[in-house]
Amino acid sequence: MALPMISLEAVNVEASDPAALAQFWATVTGGRAVIHGDTAFLPEARPGGFAMFFQPRSGPRPERTSMHLDLTVPWGSRTAEVDRLVLLGATWRWDVLDEYPHVQWSTLSDPEGNLFCVAEHPPTVGS
Fold it and tell me: Which Pfam families match (predicted)?
């Protein structure tokens, strides 16, 4: 039996202000948000990237979400990227630097409080 050809089309986000949150993520990813009425679409900024769709929140914001984005940056650039994202409106929450030898990450939240991580992986021996 052949495995299905499946890929991620877009991350869907409910937001209090879909246009503003889409603009934040457009600046983060280098993309350009397309606003249409009360929704916004952010196409992938480059091949292999990811798209995002923002729609009005349909109910109260959950106390805790069960999913979040893990973003990856080149080794040695995490701190500068976190600083850039904080200047754009993200909030730094915590760092995890020595729990796993294969990754270090910082957890942040976007302007509406959605958590996401910025991770870096050390080069492998021989790279």
Answer: Glyoxalase_6
